[in-house]
Amino acid sequence: MINFAELKPQVNPKYSFVGIEKKRGKLIFHLPKGFTQDDPNINRFNFKCELFFKLYKVLKIVQSIYQ
């Protein structure tokens, strides 16, 4: 189970990975280019939940396309 309160969103304009990565015992939620680290909503619990489930939905659609 993912603890969204501890999930740290990160935007890296040079890194194209989008998803969740475990680094040094912490969960990092890599956001795609276009997001900004200065967004005041980026660390809100609801914002992180909404982005996670949107990512999940997109991945399920991509999976169904390739099957």
Describe this protein's structure.
It is a single chain. The protein has one helix spanning 45-66, and strands spanning 8-11, 19-23, 26-31. A three-stranded mixed β-sheet has the order 1-3-2, with helices on one face. Strand 2 and strand 3 form a beta hairpin. The radius of gyration is 12 Å and the shape is globular. The termini are far apart. It has one domain (8-66). It is an alpha+beta fold and 67 residues long.
Would you summarize the structure shown here?
This protein has 67 residues and is an alpha+beta fold. The protein has one helix at residues 45-66; strands at residues 8-11, 19-23, 26-31. The chain contains 1 helix and 3 strands.
| Relative helix content | 25-40%
Structural class: alpha+beta
Number of strands: 3
Q: Using only CA atoms, what is the Rg? A: 12 Å
Largest sheet: 3 strands, mixed
Provide the domain count. Answer: 1
Write the SSE topology.
Blueprint: E1 8-11, E2 19-23, E3 26-31, H1 45-66
Parallel strand pairs: 1-3
Antiparallel strand pairs: 2-3
